[in-house]
Specification:
Pathway: Protein modification; protein ubiquitination. It comes from Seriola lalandi dorsalis. The chain is an all-beta fold and 326 residues long. The protein has a single domain, classed as Single-stranded right-handed beta-helix, Pectin lyase-like (Pectate Lyase C-like). The strands form 3 sheets. A 14-stranded parallel beta sheet has the order 1-4-7-10-13-16-19-22-25-28-31-34-37-40, with no helix packed on it. A 14-stranded parallel beta sheet has the order 3-6-9-12-15-18-21-24-27-30-33-36-39-41, with no helix packed on it. Strands 2-5-8-11-14-17-20-23-26-29-32-35-38 form a 13-stranded parallel beta sheet, with no helix packed on it. The protein is elongated. The termini are far apart.
Length: 326
């Protein structure tokens, strides 16, 4: 009765701690593997595919160890952790699921290490409605939507991952999302490497954001956040765009070798730009226009092919006297 949702394998209750290895959990009319109500267990080397609902559900303090599972071609999400679900997921291959590869919701807090999450028909990882989670050293690539989505007061840690070749952006934080985005290699995505919008306020630090087909970091629609000590380079559009009422703090970043502007404030883009090294852009290092009024101080801005700081169309530049423009 505890598994009213229906599932091929249901593990429920305190003390439930099976070992399940080398099983094929496929073609189910509902969930493949459902772990709930403080259940634990070790689940290794299983094939979990083509299930009508999620390949794996972890709910209500379920805390399994899930290693080397192949979770693919699901008609829903690959793995869904919710309602305080936990779990340790290692070296799983999660791909080609109809919805996200890995979804975290409602105080769930999984640890996901060295997995490959790829070719999702929507996004790679979707954290929403106060989800948490630690995603560490995963490869997240070739998803149709953003590699990582964070929204609605969620606060995951995204650390040491490679997030690349997405059909949209790398990391997308929107609708009051938070999160620590740290030491990731984010490259080759069709849209911005990191996009922050609609009152989201993540900490973004020590990432490499490069070789994108769009801009590096795009902060818009009242986006916020602390963006520090990242290296942003070789992107097709601006290294960093700040627009439409956004107020991020950009500190101690290296922003260089882009094919357009280094940092671009426009349409009431505000915030703080300090102690950055901004160099070797095809256009100017910093451009400020149309009602933007950022505080800009102690940056080193050099090698821009049409100037260091350009201010026009009602842009303001506070404290620019402190710039060191070579």
């Amino acid at each position: 009765p505890l598994c009213v949702v229906g599932s091929a394998v249901c593990v429920s209750g305190q003390g439930a701690c099976p070992t399940i290895k080398h099983c094929n959990i496929s073609d189910c009319e509902n969930v493949g593997l459902y772990i709930t109500d403080h259940a634990q267990g070790i689940y290794e080397d299983n094939e979990i595919s083509n299930n009508a609902l999620a390949g794996i559900w972890v709910k209500n303090h379920g805390n399994p160890i899930i290693r080397r599972n192949h979770i693919h071609h699901g008609r829903d999400v690959g793995v869904f952790t919710f309602d305080h679900g936990m779990g340790y997921f290692e070296n799983c291959n999660i791909h080609r699921n109809r919805i996200a590869g890995f979804e975290v919701k409602a105080y769930a807090n999984p640890t996901v290490v060295r997995c490959e999450i790829h070719h999702g028909q929507t996004g790679g990882i979707y954290v929403h409605e106060k989800g948490r989670g630690q995603f560490i050293e995963n490869k997240i690539y070739a998803n149709n939507f953003a590699g990582v989505w964070i929204t609605s007061n969620s606060d995951p840690t995204i650390r040491g991952n490679a997030i690349f070749n997405g059909n949209q952006g790398g990391v997308y934080i929107f609708g009051d999302g938070r999160g620590l985005i740290e030491s990731n290699d984010i490259y080759g995505n069709a849209l911005a490497g990191i996009q922050i919008r609609t009152n989201s306020c993540p900490i973004v630090r020590h990432n490499k954001i490069h070789d994108g087909q769009h801009g590096g970091i795009y902060v818009h629609e009242k986006g916020q956040g602390v963006i520090e000590e990242n290296e942003v380079y070789s992107n097709t559009l601006a290294g960093v765009w700040v627009t439409t009422g956004s107020t991020p703090v950009l500190r101690k970043n290296r922003i260089h070798s882009g094919k357009q502007v280094g940092v671009y404030f426009y349409d009431n883009g505000h915030g703080v730009l300090e102690d950055n090294d901004i160099y070797n852009h095809m256009y100017s290092g910093v451009q400020i226009r149309t009602g933007s009024n950022p505080k800009i101080r102690r940056n080193k801005i050099w090698g821009g092919q049409n100037g260091g700081i350009l201010v026009y169309n009602s842009g303001l530049c506070i404290n620019s006297i402190y710039q060191h423009t070579v």
